[in-house]
Amino acid sequence: MNKPIIYIDMDGVLADFGKAIKTHPKSNYLKYKDNPDNIHGIFANLEVVPGAKEAIHKLNQSNKYNLFVLTTAPWDNPTAWMHKRNWIEEHFGNIFHKKLIITHRKDLLIGDYLIDDRTANGAGNFKGTHLHFGWDYINNKFNNYPNWEAILDYFKLNG
Question: Pfam families from the entry (predicted)?
Answer without folding.
Answer: NT5C (PF06941)
